[in-house]
Design brief:
Layout (H helix, E strand, L loop, with lengths): L2 H14 L3 H6 L5 E5 L6 H17 L3 E5 L6 H8 L7 E6 H10 L11 E17 L7 H10 L5 E4 L5 H13 L4 E4 L3 H9 L5 E5 H10 L2 E6 L14 H4 L7 E9 L4 H16 L1 H9 L2 E2 L8 H22 L6
Parallel strand pairs: 1-2, 1-3, 5-6, 5-7
Antiparallel strand pairs: 3-9, 4-7, 4-8, 4-9, 4-10
Helix pairs in contact: 3-11, 5-13, 7-13
Length: 327
């Protein structure tokens, strides 16, 4: 460790009550990574891929702890109560650290100020999908159909505050419609009814819907990002398909408790960047349709700015819809 890093570690340690030696030797034991959702979901899968590679870089195991509940806010609250020494971190996402501000009137944390950002982990494109029998074959035809059938049209989602809920709220807002929404207890049941033709359309992450698109059991109209997604290269972007205003991806981000020493955050950021540079990690994330962060987003400062921009983006959309998690 060079002299400049040691002096920075010592100064930060004195300010936070962490000894210089402890800051210098971090991590001194296994790291707990909180995933605020049940095992097996998209965030959990990404976290396990990245945590394994981070453990090799840090020289300590990174142990996953699934703390599900209240749209991910239970696990997020758990992190705010952990010791700010870097040995407990979490993967937050669009719902826990952006949409939650408007969805939960009594949210027990402030996503913009109660965490120490480490870096963005990945983004995942949203796909606009519909039941196979829907009489539309392009995005423009889909928008026209929803507008013409607003009173009877419906969209499925995985529950209030879920990614599939908030992203379709934004889509409906851009289309200028207010169709019926049908909540389910998870994306799985929602997808089952979409395949069965019981609901009309669904907005969700590529990783969740790509298998059904490839199988031809549902229609895919567009992916809501600037470039085509590597997992479904034949699906046009919303810009190509005529709805450029709908640009939305969901994301996973790594965070530590507020007050975690800067040298410790820097060490965790180094390990995250090393993991995302690993060829095996990149290949596995590509299979999921996940995109890697930009160089700026992968920094603590870049993530902080990104979270603030996402809160500003989602708050008016959710408030305009008059939706809260208690609805």
């Amino acid at each position: 460790m060079n002299k400049r890093f040691f002096l920075a570690a010592a100064a930060t340690a004195l300010a936070t009550g962490l000894s210089p030696a402890a800051a210098q030797t971090f991590p001194s034991r296994p790291i707990t990574m909180i995933i605020p959702f049940a095992a097996g979901g998209p965030t959990d899968v990404v976290a396990r891929i990245v945590s394994e590679a981070m453990g090799k870089s840090l020289g300590q195991a990174v142990v996953i702890e699934n703390v599900a509940g209240a749209g991910g806010t239970t696990g997020s609250t758990r992190l705010t109560q952990a010791a700010a020494d870097g040995h407990t971190i979490m993967i937050g996402h669009t719902g826990t650290h952006a949409a939650s501000v408007a969805l939960y009137p009594n949210l027990r944390y402030n996503p913009a100020t109660d965490f120490a950002p480490i870096g963005l982990v990945n983004t995942n494109a949203i796909l606009i999908t519909a039941k196979k029998a829907l009489p539309a074959n392009t995005l423009s035809e889909f928008v026209a159909w929803v507008k013409a059938n607003e009173r009877t049209a419906n969209n499925a989602h995985a529950g209030i505050g879920s990614v599939s809920h908030t992203t379709c709220l934004l889509l409906n807002s851009i289309m200028g419609v207010n169709p019926q929404t049908v909540p389910y207890r998870g994306t799985g049941p929602a997808m089952n009814d979409l395949v069965a033709g019981q609901v009309d359309y669904l907005c969700d992450q590529v990783v969740n819907v790509a298998p059904q698109v490839r199988a031809g059991t549902i229609k895919a109209f567009a992916v809501a990002q600037m470039t085509r997604n590597q997992a479904l290269p034949d699906v046009p972007t919303t810009t190509e398909a005529g709805l450029p205003g709908y640009q939305v991806v969901v994301w996973n981000a790594m965070l530590a408790p507020k007050g975690t020493p800067a040298p410790v955050v820097a060490r965790l950021n180094e390990a995250l960047k090393a993991a995302l540079a690993d060829a095996n990690v990149r290949a596995r994330l590509a299979e999921l349709g996940a995109d890697l962060p930009t160089d700026v987003q992968a920094t603590p400062a870049g993530l902080q700015a990104f979270i603030e921009s996402e809160i500003a983006k989602w708050t008016p959309v959710i408030k305009a819809a008059g939706v809260t998690a208690s609805n």
